[in-house]
Amino acid sequence: MSSTVQGHCDPAFAGVREVFEQNFAEGRELGAAVTVYAGDRKVVDLWGGVADRRTGREWLPDTPCFGFSCTKAVTAAAALLLAERGAYEVDGPVTGWWPEFGAEGKDGATAAHLLSHQAGLPAFARTVPAEEAADAAARASELAGQKPEWTPGEAHGYHALTYGWLAGEIVRRLSGRTVGAFAKDEFTSDLDLWIGSPDDVIERAAKLSAGRRTTDGAGGASGGAGGRPPSKGTVGADSPKTAQHDMLKRLAAAYTDPESMMNRAMNNPHPGKGGYNNPVVLRAGWPSAGMITTAPALAGFYRDLVAGRILRPDTLREALRPRASGPDRTLLVDSAFGLGFMRPSQTFFTPKPGRASAFGHTGAGGSIGLGDPEAGLAVAYLPNLMGDQAAGDLRAFRLTQAAYAGLS
């Protein structure tokens, strides 16, 4: 089993290579890739390990990997591009273009509420099989008729999986295309990034493997994975190692409680046999957690966002304005969201230099996509060994920290 790190790294960013190699040396990785752009210059492009533990297949430069909730940033960009083109008003009523959504007291909901986890629909009211989740129109219709957990706009809670069928409905209704098709047509045509993957991509993709499990499947390959229980620490600390043991116990308890909001939000729909290696899920391209991509492609997406090639700079700037922050009813810690993008918080650890301007999205098991317009930085990291969430998975944070250090 090879664990040799390959690729190139600008000498100024040697710290990224050091962290990446250390992760392999200390057994924190099976296979993984990390890419960093400084402006339009690719300063880090590293990969290593194995893509498939069972066969020993090596991770190659173009090996794609499942990105879990990193998908949400692409869905958000698609929805925001339509707003930029005048298809709808972000702060206008959802019922203006989706009349059925007004049922059960949701008539005051805005598109901004759908995009910032304020819609009050963090979980389906019934168990949804993975096969049914492939029908985006039906899932959106189901959510439109559902009673909200809170009045839209009055609170926020991470919509781990339902987010995709809410924000994604903006794209489906107003463009006539799925999120995956719209993104590929409009801004990812030259990137190895798919939301709804063809079989040949699924075949060569990295296979997810469960790491140590201190909770019932939390972050594992066969566990729930629309989002992930936050690791320990606070956004105000230079390192998230500042422990909050009681918080971690509370999160682990919530994740394993089948009645908790966290469990219901992250595990329904469940991906079924094979977890998120299940081809049924990968073909369907859930717009909350259904993306297969390479690290260079995901970093390239953020590079293009930061450079104004996907959205106008004023559109992105408005999208990064925090719309929801503070106690998260799903994740039980403080979170912060703009219009679809995470902002620095307990659920999106960001090194000190990026706390005012960084944005992006994490994914279950440890993946991350990050952009920073002020620093001109874009970072993507994709592992196939799911991190130990309850103990605090800091791989992405350490790599991002090293990337910022390379800019100085």
Uncertain spans: 213-240
Tally of DSSP β-strands: 12
Query: Would you tell me which CATH topology applies?
Result: Beta-lactamase
- Our estimate of the beta-strand percent is 5-15%
Question: What is the terminal-to-terminal distance?
Answer: 36 Å
Q: How would you sum up this structure, described in words?
A:
This is Class A beta-lactamase-related serine hydrolase. InterPro entries: Beta-lactam-related, Beta-lactam/transpept-like, Beta-lactamase/esterase. Residues 18-397 form the Beta-lactamase-related domain. Residues 209-242 are annotated as: Disordered. The protein is of the alpha+beta class and 408 residues long. Helix 1 runs antiparallel to helix 14, helix 2 (71-84) runs parallel beside helix 6 and helix 5 packs across helix 6. The chain has a single domain (5-74, 183-407), classed as Beta-lactamase (3-Layer(aba) Sandwich). Strands 1, 2, 3, 4, 10, 11 and 12 form a 7-stranded antiparallel sheet that branches. Strands 5-7-6 form a 3-stranded antiparallel sheet. The chain is built from 14 helices and 12 strands.
